[in-house]
Each structure stands twice: as C-alpha cells, then as structure tokens.
Amino acid sequence: MPTTSSSASFDPARGLAVLRTPNSVYAVRIGADGSPRHLHWGAPLDTDALGGLPAAASPAASSFEADPAPDELAPQTGARFGPAGLQVRFADGTRGAQWSFTGHTVHGGELRLRLADRRYPLAAELCYRVRPDSDVIERWVELIHTGADDAGPISVDRLDSASWATPALPDYRLSHLVGGWNSEFQLHRDRLPVAETVLTSRRGVTSHHANPWLALDDGTADEEHGEVWSTALAWSGSWRITVHRDPVGRTTWTGGFGHEGLTWTLGPGESLHTPVFAGLHTRDGFGGASRAWHTHLRTAVLPDPERDRPVVYNSWEATGFDVDQAGQLRLARLAARLGAELFVLDDGWFGGRTSDRAGLGDWKPRPEAFPDGLRPLADEVHRLGMAFGLWVEPEMVNRDSELHRAHPDWVVHAPTRDATELRNQLMLNFARPDVEAWAHRTLDQLVRENDVNWLKWDANRVVTEAGWAGHPDPDRLWIDHTRAVHRIMDRLRTDHPGLRIEACAGGGGRADLGILARTDQVWTSDNTDPVDRIGIQHGFSQLFPAQTMAAWVTDSPNLATGRTTPLRFRFHVAMAGALGLGADLTAWSEEDLDEAAAFVARYKEIRPLVQHGRQHRLTGPGGVTAVHYASQDGAEHAVLAWRPATRFGHQPAGLALPALDPAARYLDVDEGTTHSGAVLTRRGIDLRLPAGDYASRLIRLRRTI
Ligand code: DGJ
After folding, report:
1. What is the per-residue pLDDT for 1?
2. CA 504 to ligand 1: nearest atom
3. What is the CA radius of gyration of the chain?
4. pTM
C-alpha cells in the first residue's frame, strides 16, 4: 500500500526500525547480539508484517557457515566471514567490534541507531534519512572514540557508509559504469558471479575507470519494467564497494570512502564521519531508477537545480595552450554571435604555462598573453552579454613553477620515494591546513578581482606515492584532501553567491553525488566525438540528470577520434545535455556559423525539457537510439534520435514513445501534423531521417488534448 510521503520510525519493543518512502520500505531489526540486521528493502509492507519477518530465511546450516542475517554494517566479529564494513584495531591488538544497542533518535525523516562496544571505548551511530516524495534512502555512519584522554588510539582500517542487501532473487545482474580517459561511463550489465566483486578507485579521485554507482536486478529488468536496487556514494576521492553473492543465494554489498590498506587513527574524543551512501528501490526498470535518481539530485543534491545551465563556449579545443587576449576576444565575439551565454577561458592563461610542463600553481595571468591582466577580457565578455568563466586546476603543481620552488613540501609525496610525475605535474596536499588556506585565498582573489562567474575546476592527475612528511597519520590525506576540495568549493559558493562551478578531472574523472552537491555540472569527457558520446551519455544518464552533463559541439574531424560528422549530428547529440561549443569558430564558414546559431536557438527552446524534464532512454529499430524529454506536466516533449550508421539504406520503422499518454493527441510543433497518442506509444513516430550515416532528428511534440 504505497504512502504519499516518507517517514522514519523505531519501535523499541520489537527493536524494529522502519523507513517508509512513497513506493518502498526499508526495515532493520536489532539482532539478539545487539547488531542491527537488515530485514527488508523493497515493496511496501505494513509494520506488523515486517515485525513477523524472520531475520534470515534460514538459520546457519552448520558450524562452518556464516550467520545468514545480513548486517547493516558488518563489525568483523561473530560468525561473519564476508567483507566487513567496519574494521577496527584497539591498542591491545584486538580486532572488530561487539555491539550493544544503546538507543535511537528520530527527528523528522532522520533515524539514528546508537551502538557501543561491550568492552572497548568505541561507539557508532548508523544514520538513515528519507525525504518527502523520494524513494532514496541516505545512509552514513559516525564512529566515536569514547575513551578517556589516556586511552590508547583506535585504528580504523575500514569504515563503510552502509551495507545493503536485496531480497533473495533467482539470479543477480550487476549494472555498473567503467571506462577510462576518453571513454568514461560505459554501462556494463554482467551476471553477478558467486564471488566477491570489488568496484573501486585507488586513485584519490572518483575515477574514469569505475563510478561508485551500481544497480542490481534479477536479470529480467528493462528500461521500463522490473525491480531494481541501486546505490550511489557521495564521495569524490578513493572508494571501494564490495558486492558479495554467496553460494546460498543472497547478495549484499558494502561500500564507502578509501580503498583497502588505508588506516585512520582515532584518538580519544575523536570521531570519523562517512560520506552518504544513498540507496533506491524502484519497480519501473532502469529508466524508472534513473528518473528517481535525477529527481533526487534535483531535490536533495544539486546546489542550484532550478537555474538553467548556460550555453557555454570553451576555448580548449580551439586554442590549446596558445591563448592570448586578442585570440580569446575573437572567439568570444563569434561565440556571442552564436548565442553562447558563458565564455570560458581554459588552460594556458597563467604563470609560465605555454605547455603542460610549467606554470601550474602560479595563478597570475601570463603577462605576454594578458599584459593588462584578465580584466579587459572579462569586461568585454560581459559587455558581449556573456558570463565569464575561468579554468583552474588548484590541486596541482608543476615542478617548474614559483609555487613548487617556494613550497616543495606541499606536494602529496612520501619523501623517501621517487615521485611519479603524470602530465608533468604533482599533486598538492590539500589535507594540510596551510595548503587549503592558500588554495582558498588564491581562488577567492581570482574570482573577486576578475569578476569571474564560473570556475572550471580541473584535476589532471591522481595520487601516487602518497605521503605526508612529518605527519603521524599520513593516510589521513586520502580523506582530508577530498574534504578540503569540497570545503573550498562550498566556501567559494557561499562567499560568491553568483559563482557556478564545473567539475572536471581530465574529462569525467570526478562525477559523483559528493562533487555535485557543490558544482553545477560535470565535464563529461574529453572525448567530444558524437558517436562515442552517445554511449558515454547513456552511461552518465543512469545516475545523473542531463542538466549536469556538459556536452560540446566541436570541430570535425574530431580531435580524439578523427571521425568526420555533420554539424547537425554533432548538435543533436550535444543538445541532449547542457549544450556547449568548443570549436575553433574562427575557421567556420558563414553558413556553418548561421546554422550553429539556429541550433543554439533551437536548444534554448527545448532547454526547459532537457534540463528540468523527465528523461526516457529509447532504442528503436535500425540502429536508432534516442532520448525523450518530457515536461513534468506531460504537455511538452522533445525527442532527439540518432542513427550513427545506416543499415542497407533502409528507413528505420517508427520509434515508439511509450512515455506518452495513449489517450492524448500530440501536435508535431515543427511539422504542424497531429498524431494519436495510441499510435505514438505503440507503432511509433516516423523518424524520416536523412539518408546516410550520422543521421539525426529533433522532434518536438505538444499535447493538444
Ligand atoms: C582536461 C580537461 O578535461 C580539458 O577540457 C581541458 O580543460 C584540459 N584539461 C586543459 O589542460
């Protein structure tokens, strides 16, 4: 029986915690050993039914088997042999926690279960939050050393945010995102092996190679049907999620910040708080799960979800490091003519930065390129009616820089190890308060002095030879560096209310719910080839809404792939996200400039649907894929359809639009024709694609009755 809102409750008599969302229920019971055990996550059940559920389907079959009741956070004691979400060592060498349940609190939609170790000075709160009109459950953990000043430290070898479990299913399929630089967000759906499957980043950033999102189903879900359980971690540094499918048919997973082998030392009175690990159960397939995530990002994560993302012009692919005031002004004038609303000056404007070998860290305009500083360019960009954006890479330093010469000790580096340089750069240790203060001061000044409206915050290397000379607990840098990045972004936004930030790490290397709580969008990939982008965007959209997906139209042949594609196709692919332009416009013909201006104008017409509507991913016949964006009230629709390669010269059959109302009629706004909803949902709309490869079309529909 679905409820309309969400609630959190705890019944002390039954030791039963229940989190209700509009379409799902999550229940936990305090086990006989004092540990919170997972009871149910899925379809709504009333509290009496939940209270009557056995903690596990069957008891352990023998003294060799694990306790079958899944833990909310496995504490490394008892008959538990799977991945432990909490791993601690006390001063006497004893490992693990044995909990007593000490109470609970409920405030609105937030529930906390309080635990204390039976013999050692360690307490934990398992925290849960539900929000109105959302099926997402947010979970995190707070661990506290409760000992007196003279108590020894506690080593925390692992503290996950949450462990999750699905009901027993006949089979399990894992959907996850993998890739690399230029190939981020590739969606893989793999049958889950009876094994432990580790998804992780050991790089100190979220990573191009894996994303801390996953979905589980029984192998039968599709875009519109089927139960899906999915989770996403709000963390932008290293992370680890271990999915455990056991031989007797249960699947659980546990995840949080940090990769294996890192230790955090907790002194008396200190606490360690994890990032949020959010979970979602839906019954409307992968598309339904994505739409619920998109809504969650808009209502609970993004700092400014209602604001339209501007059409950006970014100079990187046009000018590389070869930037100067005159060249950027030429591009800015053309960008304004095309309808761009934001001009971003990318890499190469500062210090001795004429290539990637020097200058990082010296955030002063390069005098040969900008003799009077950035202000003349910023002012002219503003005069042209655009916002002014600036590329920065604050966490990085080239050895060949004033900053490195002055502060060689500021880098993340174990001093007895050779430092690996990646892209000729090293990483600054933002875990150091003095480095964090420098970075904040530097960025604050840049924004203030140059009237900067937008920062593109890049990060082009990952952590190697991590070390922190002289610090007793150097592993802390893995977590504290990321916390400092988040904190600086938060402070900049607070102090400069108009400022927007784009998250970038050599393309989409830092895309997660943590970074998107303080940035407006993600630079999705350095690969701007429209054919590759269709797959990248498909994966990205599993979790993130289109308004956060920066997508540029660039030159053809494409820099990354050498592929030649028509302007129309490039626009139609990029119009599915936050549209941008990244081409060398000085080399474009008048016809191309006019055509591009018309596409930008068209994008602005559909922007409310793309950026604030509901998204449906579609697959049509004949190699066609498409996305359908519907306004929240179902009145307006935009469909972007792409066919990269023609097949036998055939026109594909109709593209079905199942999200439309079969009882309604729809006007094709551009063609002036009307269509029955019943036909469009079942037989589909005739795409009438142009002949040849790289064919695409935008269709706009308006409900008439
Ligand atoms: C990597 C980014 O992804 C690019 O867009 C560009 O900003 C370069 N860095 C600049 O070095």
Report:
1. 41
2. 3
3. 26
4. 0.97
